[in-house]
Recover the amino acids of this structure.
């Protein structure tokens, strides 16, 4: 894809400069601090459910009400946590990461990170939010 | 066609079924033609010009993902085995969190058309593209096989087409229609077909769910009790273990299946490709959120439909019907609403298969044209139009292959949710580790990527080939037939039906080892570009203006 004529492509050095900037470090930290532990948590909870269903069928067959047992309730619980985590992630992205990434994108488009310009030293307001 | 009305095992009225299906085909064809007017560039053909909205794409993802396996296979597994069938839907749903949190937005920001665009981004282009294209093709073909098997079973059941030749003709018609959608409509046409299909499927499932619940006074416990009363003797369908609880090996198989399901989705090429049809990463996020809600709600419906089929139709009649386990949902529709509801559900199920097969075909053809032809064979010296032309030819070839596979799959009678689970295992082994390493591990190298992709892929295929899926499966007491693809031979030595438990960790390990042992220095500049682009969306492909 050729960039529009009024806009030149970013150079590799600009990307490197952007990657080394404090606001990018903050963006990356905020993204990973949510995504990694959350991924670990839901995978662990899911595997726990699978392992309990497989190796503790008697426990999972504990009747809770009528014919509904613990296994079915925990299974429905997997649906519930999936919906909740989805909601939490969107809220986190909207509030914590989008402002930084939007601001960085604008500055990258203005070539603020071209080496030697020095403007990247001034961090934007979003980082301090 | 003399055998059209002959079969007494047919349920419902084939004329009504065909009429409803025909109506769907006509409407979607009209829309596809309309969509084709805007198909000019490669971005149009592969990615619908990147101007599908997040909400539309969420519906299309649901349409792509809720395949015949979800609708027919899961409902059938729950109807016959109860609780153990429920695991499929949980795994298929939770898997979306991997896509949402780790993959969707980052991939949207860095790729153009295919999965390989990201995987090869900071590596040596040609070998990695080739590897990613091969695994894309293998995963898509396995998925296609499952869909075509579903189409075959459905045809037998609903249209009363019983002769082998007549079934082959119907599969050929389905395949030809699908090729037509893809050639004429490209990604945009395919997207619209998937949106319509997802809406119909979810509405159809909602109607059946409310109907079943209504019969049991909206009491889940009563429904479970009803299913338990009809269950195969000695089996408790409300408790775990009916299908997988028998031995230590089958228990491990269940864990293996669970792992493949949850890690497979984010490595499915046709799912990843849907993220490229939206204008920005935020739209990609929005589409996954929509998809999670739609898919989650649909699977809750399928739990009710499955137990409802178990209670109102009963496993004996389901297993005795042509299409066996996969017939549960259509049989329930007939039980509830007679020929009309059956016709509607049958039409929806056909539409499902058609839409999913079209999505798979366009993904596989894009991968071949964009990665293998344009990048590896022509070394990038090819015009967008030339590439699209190759993609169209590939779509025809893949369509023809899937027609052939579908005709073969008619005979096999495997549960299609199970076949799809194998496709998930391959995607989780061959694709996901490399995607995760590429996006999150600086020191990942070309050698690591190749070891992980090829290692995961080969391990998966070898383990499947020597598993009870292919040979040496236990004999069915009533039919005297083995559950394997091949009868009367046994060269199996791998005990599990699903290879995920071995092949997924192996692939992660190989990716790490290959990178550690590699002399190649990771490309720092390319890595910086990938990381900055992934998180900020700078330089991402823009929507095409028309």
């Amino acid at each position: 894809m050729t960039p529009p004529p009024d806009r030149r492509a970013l150079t590799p050095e600009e990307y490197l400069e952007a990657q080394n900037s404090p606001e990018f470090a903050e963006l990356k930290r905020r993204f990973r601090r949510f995504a990694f532990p959350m991924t670990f948590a839901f995978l662990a909870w899911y595997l726990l459910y699978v392992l309990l269903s497989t190796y503790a069928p008697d426990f999972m067959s504990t009747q809770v009400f009528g014919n509904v047992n613990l296994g079915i309730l925990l299974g429905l619980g997997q649906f519930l946590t999936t919906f909740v985590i989805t909601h939490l992630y969107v809220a986190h992205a909207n509030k914590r990461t989008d402002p930084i990434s939007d601001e960085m994108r604008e500055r990258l488009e203005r070539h603020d990170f071209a080496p030697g310009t020095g403007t990247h030293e001034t961090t934007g307001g979003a980082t301090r939010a | 066609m003399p055998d059209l009305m002959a079969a007494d095992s047919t349920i419902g009225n084939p004329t009504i079924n065909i009429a409803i299906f025909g109506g769907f085909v006509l409407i979607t064809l009209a829309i596809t033609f309309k969509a084709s007017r805007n198909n000019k560039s490669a971005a149009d053909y592969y990615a619908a010009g990147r101007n599908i909205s997040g909400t539309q794409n969420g519906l299309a993802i649901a349409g792509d993902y809720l395949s015949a396996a979800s609708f027919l296979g899961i409902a059938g597994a729950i109807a016959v085995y109860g609780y153990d069938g429920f695991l499929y839907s949980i795994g298929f749903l939770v898997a979306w969190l991997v896509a949402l949190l780790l993959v969707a937005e980052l991939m949207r920001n860095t790729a153009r058309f295919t999965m390989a665009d990201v995987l090869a981004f900071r590596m040596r282009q040609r070998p990695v593209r080739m590897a990613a294209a091969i695994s894309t093709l293998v995963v898509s073909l396995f998925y296609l096989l499952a869909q075509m098997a579903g189409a075959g079973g459905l045809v037998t059941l609903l249209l009363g087409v019983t002769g082998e030749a007549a079934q082959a003709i119907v599969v050929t018609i389905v395949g030809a229609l699908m090729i037509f959608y893809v050639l004429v409509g490209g990604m945009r046409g395919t997207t619209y077909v998937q949106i319509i299909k997802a809406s119909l499927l979810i509405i159809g499932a909602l109607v059946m769910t409310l109907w079943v619940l209504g019969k049991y006074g909206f009491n889940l416990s009563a429904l479970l009790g009803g299913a338990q009363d009809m269950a195969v003797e000695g089996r408790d369908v409300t408790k775990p273990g009916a299908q997988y609880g028998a031995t230590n090996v089958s228990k491990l198989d269940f864990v293996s299946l669970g792992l493949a399901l949850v890690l497979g989705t984010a490595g499915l090429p046709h799912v990843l490709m849907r993220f490229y049809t939206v204008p920005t990463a935020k739209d990609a996020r929005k589409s996954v959120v929509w998809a999670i809600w739609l898919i989650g709600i649909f699977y809750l419906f399928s739990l009710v439909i499955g137990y409802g089929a178990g209670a109102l139709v009963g496993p004996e009649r389901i297993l005795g019907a042509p299409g066996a386990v996969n017939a549960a949902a259509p049989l329930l529709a007939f039980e509830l609403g007679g020929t009309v509801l059956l016709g509607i559900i049958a039409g929806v199920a056909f539409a499902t298969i058609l839409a999913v097969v079209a999505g798979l075909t366009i993904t596989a053809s894009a991968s071949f044209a964009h990665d293998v032809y344009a990048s590896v064979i022509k070394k990038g010296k090819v015009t967008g139009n030339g590439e699209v032309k190759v993609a169209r030819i590939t779509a025809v070839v893949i369509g023809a292959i899937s027609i052939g596979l579908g005709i073969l799959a008619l005979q096999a009678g495997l549960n299609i949710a199970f076949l799809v689970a194998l496709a998930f295992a391959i995607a989780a082994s061959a694709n996901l580790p490399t995607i995760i390493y590429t996006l999150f591990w600086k020191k990942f190298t070309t050698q690591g990527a190749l070891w992980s992709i090829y290692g995961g892929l080969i391990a998966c295929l070898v383990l499947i080939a020597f598993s009870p899926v292919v040979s040496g499966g236990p004999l069915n007491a009533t039919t005297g037939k083995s559950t394997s693809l091949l009868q009367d031979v046994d060269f199996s030595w791998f005990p599990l039906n699903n290879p995920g438990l071995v092949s997924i960790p192996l692939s992660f390990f190989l990716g790490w080892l290959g990178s550690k042992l590699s002399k190649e220095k990771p490309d720092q500049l390319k890595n910086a570009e990938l990381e900055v682009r992934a998180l900020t969306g700078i330089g991402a492909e823009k929507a095409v203006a028309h």
